[in-house]
Amino acid sequence: xxxxxxxxxxxxxxxxxxxxxxxxxxxxxxxxxxxxxxxxxxxxxxxxxxxxxxxxxxxxxxxxxxxxxxxxxxxxxxxxxxxxxxxxxxxxxxxxxxxxxxxxxxxxxxxxxxxxxxxxxxxxxxxxxxxxxxxxxxxxxxxxxxxxxxxxxx
Length: 154
What we know:
It is built from three helices and eleven strands. It has helices at 115-122, 131-140, 149-152, and strands spanning 20-22, 25-32, 37-43, 48-53, 58-65, 68-72, 75-79, 84-87, 93-96, 103-110, 144-145.
């Protein structure tokens, strides 16, 4: 990775003009160093990130537009514009857009670890992607998805 240069990343720009389609959500990477990776995300109504764990990363969201429903360490909570959501490493969390509106948020993780590479691996898998493949690809990049609640209860 190259050193970070000073400057401004404009609102409609990202790293190397990258725009990922991650299971119907749009992710635009804004900056990456070994210590931190940040991206702008747009989540249409009904999209979500299933409960998962980052064993080696702290994750944050700064909500710009819309209302998120979260499952944080097994507890439901809500985030709205202007809220900073803190997701410490090792704590299970799920991110859901249960509203009728598109959500826009700024995500970042520290350290970067393998998340950038995971997004390339998931890019354009599509809405009909095999969940087992998504889980396997994610696990290979140090993101551990949790089984659905009905499976976890058995």
